[in-house]
Amino acid sequence: MSSVYSMGINLSNHDRSVAICKDGEIICAISEERLDRRKHSDGFYAIQNNSIVVPPLKSITYCLEMLNISVEDLDIIVVGRSIKGCRESAVEFLPIKNKKKIFEFDIPSHHLAHAASVAYSNDIVDGFVIVADEQGHWVNDNEYEYITLYEVKNRNLYLKNKQLGSYDNISFGMFYDIISYCLGFSDSGFPAAGKTMGLSAYGRGTKYNKHFFDISKEGIIFNFENFIEFLYDNDLISLRLNRSDLPLKVANSTILKEIAKYINPIDWENDRAKKIAFIAQQELEFCIEKYLEIHLGNEKGVKLCAAGGIFLNTNLNSRINSLNFINKYYPFPASTDDGCAIGLAYLGAIKLGVKTRGTYTMYLGKKYVDEDIKNSIAQFGLNYEYIREPETLIAEYLNKNNIIGIFTGGSEFGPRALGHR
Question: Which end of the chain is more exposed for a tag (fewer CB within 10 A), N or C?
Fold first, then answer.
């Protein structure tokens, strides 16, 4: 019986990626940024509007070569991106003869791809998955996926709760991103939320008695007045804005874009910046904890998985792991949109009736034998010495403040540096 191949392609405007599921198991996955050396690797044409995202062609080629198959050997290609659909551009750009193999789930399904990536990659049979990011799919001109909770039953995903954001109701991810912008943190044009998290430790102990979100069983509401007061009191805006000062509504946008026009970023080395970062971090942790308590607090021994960009926040993950109703917690290592490629590949396999199996490693790139390494060294005319146990020598070099480059095994998938590169 021939193998069944499902390829997942993340076509978000950042962190493009590819994964291949063979007979229900993820065999390879790679982020385009690892190959084109452009952080976050957006796929926009510079002279076009943002409606066209070029597929991660380097990653597609890389994965096909790793498995020694052609694109025609794929049984299904599942594509997806945040914000909007993408099958049309995938059909246009992907070099496969049978375009019917290219599939996209109905919108909204961005959070489903995130959930699948973490639910099917580990051994959870029954439990829950929380997905939260800046924004998922826009379900219409005014609403977008904000935060979603799934229940896992016998390794199947069932929707438990979905919160939609709107023009006036920004997400937790948007809130944290705008604070990162206020502190001057960016990463290849994207807000560098990880730097804000790191800085927050230096503001530990700062007290602030107001919240920016009202959270209840009925939903989550962004508190515009409290947020504007916070920005104004910390000299991040010079004008104390009223809601009436800003446009009533803009399609496919949020009020945050209007607020951003008034923000005066400050230097992160400023003591005020450290306090601001700490307050933002505390608010994020408080909001996620309260959401989980409302929806899962009455459960016992909860097994919880998490995906979506905000769950790269290790401080947040530590707080979730400490909750008394959480028995086991697994945040997906590739929680940003690159991880969606794995979720899409799994979903494609399931659509074809294939039973999925867990992926117990993130080292999903090509592995190289000694002969490959020697050929590469010879190509660049480098000298080398073979050392059987290099750990001691590496420690000695590090102790002398030298910089060491490590290349071992298959490359890591996702934004984390996990020791192989």
Answer: N
